[in-house]
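Troubleshooting entry. The earlier prediction with glutamine gave an output that would not parse, so I re-checked the input for stray whitespace and re-submitted. Clean input:
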Amino acid sequence: MKPSPDFSEIQFNLRNGSLTCVERVKYHLKNIEQKKTLNVFLSVYGDEALACAAEVDKKIKNGTAGRLAGMVIGLKDVLAHRHHPLQAGSRILGGFISQYNATAVQRLLDEDAIIIGRQNCDEFAMGSSNENSAFGPVLNDADHTRVPGGSSGGSAVAIMADMCQVSLGSDTGGSVRQPASFCGVAGLKPTYSRISRYGLIAYGSSFDCIGIFSKHLPDIALVLEVIAGADDFDSTVSQQPVPRYSELIQKNDSTKYKVAYVRDHLESPALQEEIRECMLKKIEALRRSGHTVSAIEFPLLEHVLPTYYILATAEASSNLSRFDGVRYGYRSKRTTDLLSMYKKSRAEAFGEEVQRRILLGTFVLSASYYDAYYTKAQKVRRLIREKTKAIFGEYDFMIMPAAPTTAFKLGELTDDPLQMYLADLFSVHANVAGIPGISVPCGNDRKGMPIGLQIIADDFKEAELLQFSEVFVRNVE
Ligand code: GLN
């Protein structure tokens, strides 16, 4: 099978007239149609994307096209796209139409990207397998009996199955990197605050990041460059200037890097043997190429996952209080008074996992437990961030698995929420510390399921992270 072209090749062909945007959109629409059973898209904007492509083709001809002219993009169902449905994979937002564009979406459109549809995901981005969507699970294209990971499962499979060139997802605790690893594609979560969250449906606001999926690292660099940066609509977004990521990522980098990995990660009994082997091989290959790779200790490891689940559920319980049957979407028909309307609307339209998270979050925020859980978790979060920053005082990058296992079977973990939470064992660290992380494909296990390894870096080191990812994926046996 011919490998799919990266965007610079597509643009080259668009400019020399051997390809049109309309052809590109048709190609992706055909793949979406042929693989409908994977349940990747909740809405496909076929006619609209074709009309937009025809416009962009004209702009390319007359030399007025933007930097993303001809890039076909899918959006996870948590990103506001003006005059299009937005549901966060939930029944509670049934019938809701967005009135405005998320800043990231607006910036894509301003550069002539073409949006092809809205992608399935776990309800309110809560999940690790895409089985919590009100629209049913997405299937992994490498094995239809397996999950694609979550919560941005649709966005990952869309890339895997060539249904678009780039997907935007969201990553609160791994929702871009973990599905990227399950689907054999690259997925970047940037530094917290690098990309405006305006128009991203909130889950855990102090963790939420828009993330980018593609088969090609330079595509991720270019999209990040377009969507990152200051925004009047999000007071928490960083004012740091946005580097020219797309120019900084080079194929022939001869820098010798200092890389660390956590010894306990490799010794974790939860880690699938083939992923351990893959990590060890990678470490050896990096060493042979002259990089320094050292085993380090990270004493707070066992606290990272509980810290995430306490704080993320606390924030979720507060964020989701706005869905009350009054202002948005679903309202129960069986109400008798105001209170019963709130209760019934929420009980009928939120799925089981979302209700569990709201209850957990409300519990850790309740007056008698606030200090024992919420305050304590905040303190631990700060320690985790400080210890992690100290590592980056000495090392350029940390490498680790993206997830403890490759894609598991549909239904395998649905009865055991704790086991499901363990799927985030390695991905939540970057979110708790607020730093950038990426999952890149590193071969397959014996069943043919993709393995993803993760690289994390210090705050705002996306350029370096993408550069090293190029080195990392090339550095194979
Ligand atoms: N799986 C994690 C959770 O359920 C992460 C989700 C995410 O990053 N949106 O919370």
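This one parsed fine. The chain has 17 helices and eleven strands.
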